[in-house]
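Request: When convenient, would you put together a sequence paired with its structure tokens?
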Amino acid sequence: MAMTTSQTDTPASAVTLPSHHLLGIEGMDVLTMHRLLDRASYFADNLTNDVEQTLKGQTIVNLFFENSTRTRVSFEVAAKKLGASVLNISVAGSSVKKGETLVDTATTLNAMHPDILVVRHHASGAPQLLAQHIDAAIINAGDGRHEHPTQALLDALTIKRRFGKIEGLRIAICGDITNSRVARSNLYLLGGLGAEVRFVSPSTLLPPAIGDMGVAVYHDMAEGIKDCDIVMMLRLQTERMEGRETPSQHEYFNLFGLDSDKLEAAAPKAMIMHPGPMNRGVEIDSEIADDHERSLIHKQVEMGVAIRMACLEALAVTAAQKRSA
């Protein structure tokens, strides 16, 4: 598949963001979306080559209150490729586990003068709270059920490089919508870039305010993914559930798990995506997940480094420009 067509005059140039932080996709302007994707595409083409060390001399802190090897490691690799020093803070062994509040943690970190703080937290709004108490730029690496902006950006980058566009594509996001920050960020981003986004889910796994989100909702898998170009599966986030939201995993797979039979309802050349980690045999069949002709799941992981390079660089450039203004 051919590479994407640039949406900017200088696609390989660093991006300046309108904000000092990257807390979510909601409210991001379309031009910024395109510029981040263009810059990340440049990095994706050069992942094995030396790139400009735009973060040399800067310190990036990964502060993860939830486990996520994939996201944390990709941020670490991205930062190091750009020349930054990286500090990973293990919450399990930190003062947070001893009762320190989030604001206390922010005050402590602020005294160390990091340049960028990458935050994952189980509570929605935690990165926004930290942004009010710390001088460093904040990247939201996933907060509760709220947003996961860099996951949506890497999903969009994967789609754009595979299809050459996003506008006009039909994209079904299937599974546990109510607990998925990925679903929300992807709705804002992919919808903002002109895709037709659908949610496919049992009614018990939809947020109460689904009617205000401006998205078509389907409760039947075949109907929901009919003629879709991309079928994005989500895992059941049982850690956020109260136990009454779904039937047995076996019954859930029969109704909403993606297998080759259900996939026949999608477009003939439909591609499969999943933000991970996967629950094989629950929301996706292994045969589908490992189908190299149709699965983009491994490509999503690869694009994670590129998009996070673009985001880290953008925050560093934005901060530098504000200091010199």
